[in-house]
Amino acid sequence: MYLNRYKTDKLILQFILFNQFLEGVKLVKEKKIFKQAKLLQKSIVFPEASFSDRTIEAVKYIQKKSIAKPILIGDESALILRDKTLADFQIISPKTFQAKDELVKHLYQKRKEKGLTLQEAEELVQDPYYFATLLVEMGYADGMVAGAEETTARTIRPAFQIIKARKKNGIISSSFLVYGENKFLNDRAILLADCAINKHPNEDELFQIACQSVETYLSLGLKDPKVAFLSFSTNGSADDETVRIVKAAAEKFRKKGYVCDGDIQFDAAINENVAKIKCPQSPLKGDANILIFPDLNSGNICYKAIEYIGGLNAVGPILQGLNKPVNDLSRGCSVEDIVLLTAITVLQTIKEEK
């Protein structure tokens, strides 16, 4: 479906600004992420290519700059008719894919104990999200990026059902990479978790979220993780069941040997001056770069407030704990977000290979 003239002009302007941003980007960390991704040359599948203009603009840049090898899902003739430059891309249709029967059988075996029939498996393989996830699961692609046009639940449900968690009894969580010019960030990147999946994590789940977030942080080439377990309380200034859960998770995580603190309030975690007043003994010293939220409400609200009111960039959700990398986008994402999350997805393949 073609955009009307107004939307088309707006998209072109967005892409021009996006190119100017990347060509003159000041954030060294983002440059490093792209540079690392280029070295790996992984195949990333995009299930929304046939109905997302932002995705099309992003994959053009990704292929041009060799950030990854894009695989587009859709009807080849229709996509090329829409944009002739897409003739240079690998395009796979669920209807004509040679190994379609293999995908159907694999999906059926994965889900038959849940009541899935062979006919239902055949129908699900026609769904672009299930099809793309199966390509990753079966090794036809190294990772997947989607979510610009659909909800998080719609995008990641196939990954939960097919790829599943890396560790037995382990959870799957998410994080957002936040960066930009800000007097408190001081041009550093921070990770927020969990802002998209786990509603009310218990002590062990908060511990797992923190461990997975450190893995994500280090996989992006970032160094010296400093983890803050956030609360409305700092160092026991208030008592509540949620505070006790946060404190217990922080105590368990402290044994991992990373710099961390909790319970601690947001301002004390990222502002050195506030930390000197509220918690002068805190090892974070107001310099936390991984923020673990006590629940999904606080995490989701905070990342959106940071992005829309604070004027910072928030990329994700980056899924953590999966066997293979599948990542979701916010429906409000920009072309730039898609490109950066693709590079992050490429870097996650290193962990999967190890």
Overall description:
The model is unreliable at 1-10 and 12-28 (pLDDT under 50). The chain has 354 residues and is α/β, with parallel strands linked by helices. The chain has helices spanning 5-23, 28-40, 53-64, 76-82, 100-111, 118-125, 128-137, 152-162, 203-219, 241-254, 266-270, 272-278, 296-308, 335-353, and strands at residues 43-46, 69-73, 90-92, 143-146, 173-179, 190-193, 226-230, 259-264, 290-292, 313-320, 326-328. A 6-stranded mixed sheet has the order 8-7-9-6-5-10, sandwiched between helices. A 5-stranded parallel sheet has the order 3-2-1-4-11, with helices on both faces. The protein is globular and about 65 Å long. It folds into 2 domains: 5-164 and 326-353, 3-Layer(aba) Sandwich (Rossmann fold), CATH 3.40.50.10950; 173-308, Rossmann fold (3-Layer(aba) Sandwich). Strand 2, helix 4 and strand 3 form a beta-alpha-beta unit. It is built from 14 helices and 11 strands. It starts with a helix and ends with a helix.
Tags for this model:
354 residues, alpha/beta, Rossmann fold, 2 domains, six-stranded mixed beta sheet, five-stranded parallel beta sheet, globular
